[in-house]
């Protein structure tokens, strides 16, 4: 049985359903974008929380745009405009493509 109580939990058997904000947020202050590649216009590298990642190929980025899934900087699979559970942004978000 689930009890929905506006005033908080009740004493006795049952559960209280609480609404929690589970939205992951991207902290732009943890991100440093390197110089642009003159051929593609994309950054050559991106640094997040002190770790540097080389920018994926243009073909990989194109796949992510069309597949509606994307990798984060540290290799997790998420939505193109998403942020992983640890706060790591997708490549498309880090490169300001979404």
Describe this protein's structure.
With 98 residues, the chain is α+β, with helices and mostly antiparallel strands. The protein has a domain at 28-94. 14% of the residues lie in helices and 15% in strands. The chain is built from two helices and five strands, in the order βββαββα. The protein has helices at 58-67, 91-94, and strands at 31-33, 45-48, 51-54, 70-71, 77-78. The strands form two sheets. Strands 1-2-3 form a three-stranded antiparallel beta sheet, with no helix packed on it.
Radius of gyration: 19 Å
| Helix amount | 10-25%
Assembly form of the protein:
single chain
Strand order of the largest sheet: 1-2-3
Major sheet: size, sense and barrel closure? 3 strands, antiparallel
Strand-residue proportion = 15-25%
Shape: globular
| Tally of helical runs | 2
Residue ranges: pLDDT <50 for 5 or more in a row?
Answer: 1-5
**Mean pLDDT score, rounded?**
81
Alpha carbon gap, first and last residue: 43 Å
Tally of strands: 5
SSE arrangement, N to C: EEEHEEH
Task: Decide which structural class fits the backbone.
Answer: alpha+beta
